[in-house]
Amino acid sequence: MAAAALAEPSLEKDVIAEGLLELLRPAIQQLDLHVHSVRESQVELREHIDNLATELCRINEHQKVALDLDPYVKKLLNARRRVVLVNNILQNAQERLRRLNHNVAKETARRKTMLEASGFSSRSPSKP
């Protein structure tokens, strides 16, 4: 009887933990989608910066009047470097989110299996 009394608080904790996991899952998935879309826009921005830098270099080479576009090209390349750095940070964050989401799903499945094995139903206890 004492073992049954100890098992009930453990089951309650498991139910609460499962509820928290289910609560966090949509937020993690939404954050993962947003990070993915930001990464795509970062790649697009990097490509535009590369094209603009190439075009400025080409214009600079064909100009009859000597315009010093090198500082602008350097600024563009510096901006590109920062975009790549942010993209790498986002990629690492997205990978961590994916692992977290995977672990949440795995833990939820484990706890659900434990609850089902112990005979605990997902219904709240009621008087017959």
UniProtKB/TrEMBL annotation:
UniProt-recorded Gene Ontology molecular function terms: SNARE binding
Family: Belongs to the SNAPIN family.
Official protein name in the record: Biogenesis of lysosome-related organelles complex 1 subunit 7
Domain of life of the source: Eukaryota
InterPro entries in the cross-refs: Snapin (IPR017246), Snapin/Pallidin/Snn1 (IPR028119)
Coiled-coil residues: none
Alphabetical UniProt keywords: Coiled coil
Any single Pfam family the record assigns to this protein: Snapin_Pallidin
Ranges for region Disordered: 108-128
GO cellular component: BLOC-1 complex; BORC complex; synaptic vesicle
